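Predict the 3D structure for this chain.
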Amino acid sequence: MTSDAELIWQGKYITVRKEGTWEYVGRANNIHAAVILAVDDGHVLLVEQYRVPLKRNCLELPAGLVGDEMAGEGIAAAATRELEEETGYTAAHIEIIGEFASSPGMVSETFTLVRAHGLKQVHAGGGVDGENITVHRVPLVEVPGFVAAKRAEGLVIDVKLMLLLGLI
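Done. Predicted structure below.
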């Protein structure tokens, strides 16, 4: 973002900016996201939850905000926290894969993709504060069929699941 960007509106988590003819949304207060690829023992952890902007349930990789609860929180710490909150699994190690953008023509937000290693289930998961997350532990070889079945049920499929569909 350059200094030429005009702040149109700011909420607790997002901003709307205008720069020349471009209008775009971003995260407020240097908050960013971590997306977690949690593959262990030939299975991947996926989450399903209602997304207000889409007005439907969405099938996604576990993810969460970095720095929304504690200023200066690191990516690995946030990913570890979010993985346990959403899925009920802890990770022995978080490997940072890199920074990515999912909709760079409209959103300035980027996310850091991480891989969780050494998974151990410690509770059922489901998120916090009414997130009502459903956790799915899916065999990697069944991911294409699982995604197709969820799409047929009317779920929106997060584009980041293409990562898994490309692995198979």
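The chain has two domains: 1-29, 31-167.
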